[in-house]
Amino acid sequence: MFDDAVPYSDPACPTRVIVVAIDASKHAQKAFDWALDHMCRGSGDASGVLDEIVLLNCRPVAATPSVPVGDEIFAGAVISSNQDYQAWAAEQTRIESHTLLKKYAYRVMERNKGVIVRAIALEGDTREELCNAAKQLRAECVVMGSQGMSLVSKLMVGSVSDHVLHHASCPVIVVR
């Protein structure tokens, strides 16, 4: 079950699912624009197949801060539970993700009449979540941006686009 940011119902006709991975970066903006300019066919082709643009945004799982218990620094202090903080942080990132997804979804609706739009907020490891969602959605392709990391950065941190490119179950277009 996906966390849809905008209302969605299954279309009655066949669709071509195009996944666009977005975040708040200029690289994602460029990939989004490219996908709309080059992948969307508007109200479908002669076969009656409609395009379904699925916007995906993945947020990390909220980290639980660790507070040393019994430390003299915190003696007598009232500290809310880690669970309260984690729930609050998770809700804040969920709201941010939904806000971003709605912004992009409305832009798709404005530019491409006749295209079905779905906006899904994911949570977890971005690399794995994007690959899993593309597979579950039976995506025809994934369009995503590249941050242009150096080789050293890719080796140290790992590139999301590189991982998706090598592990997705469908073609991946990386826009630079």
Automatic annotation (TrEMBL):
Alphabetical list of Gene3D superfamilies matching this protein: HUPs
Specify the UspA domain's residue ranges: 16-176
Spell out the Pfam families in the cross-references: Usp
Which InterPro entries does this one have?
Rossmann-like_a/b/a_fold, Universal_stress_UspA, UspA
Q: Which PANTHER family match?
A: ADENINE NUCLEOTIDE ALPHA HYDROLASES-LIKE SUPERFAMILY PROTEIN, USPA DOMAIN-CONTAINING PROTEIN
Protein name listed in UniProt: UspA domain-containing protein
Q: Which organism is it from?
A: Chytriomyces confervae
Taxonomic lineage from the root: Eukaryota, Fungi, Fungi incertae sedis, Chytridiomycota, Chytridiomycota incertae sedis
